[in-house]
Amino acid sequence: MDDLKDNLLKKYAQGNLASVYLAKYPEHTNAVAWAQDFLSSITKLKDHPDVLWVERTEENEYKVESPGILAVFKFLNYRAFELKKKFIFINDAHLLSTIVSNKLLKVFEELPENFCLFLFAPQDQNLLPTVESRAIKVLLPQDLSGVDYDAPLPTYASAQELVASLKKSEDDYLEEKKFIEEALIKTLKSGNFKECSDTLESLKHYQVSDAFNNSKLARLSLLFK
């Protein structure tokens, strides 16, 4: 059951949707899929003229000249065609540049009453404090339906081998967290109490090591016996 979606749909029906929402999403959750599901309860049209989807192309971050950002300012000039609200969904909002974020602050303050803007960002990523302070924060429900818990995790003979593998990824810190999270879930699903206890103890020391900014190799060595 998606209580958040039901609550927002009720607010939409009553005309009480807020102007700006910051929707954080946990690991394994597809924010765009959630938004499409939310909209499907409002309109059956896949490409509705009252809905604007903003996504990055090949850019590392949104810039003033990014097509999606330019489209936002153009979209604001028109009234709603059919729906009670015109919706703007900005994916990867944590990658808004500082300049774009500051420009959007003015948009937030002057957003017409018939507009509703959603900013989507991973749960562990922050936006500018000034942006976050102007949005109502919500957390999307975690979607684990596509997670294959029986799929084998990559095996590494040592922490050195794991660190070398992580360095090849685009975001090694995120991949490190993902590897640890999936390893913990698999351990918990095994039902082996001693194995779970040992894993949790290792993670406790790993967290302390991370808090003291120890090297990646030193942190991950704690997970290898």
TrEMBL record:
It holds the Pfam family DNA_pol3_delta2. This is Uncharacterized protein. SUPFAM superfamilies: P-loop containing nucleoside triphosphate hydrolases. It comes from the Bacteria. InterPro entries: P-loop_NTPase (IPR027417). It comes from Bacteriovorax antarcticus.
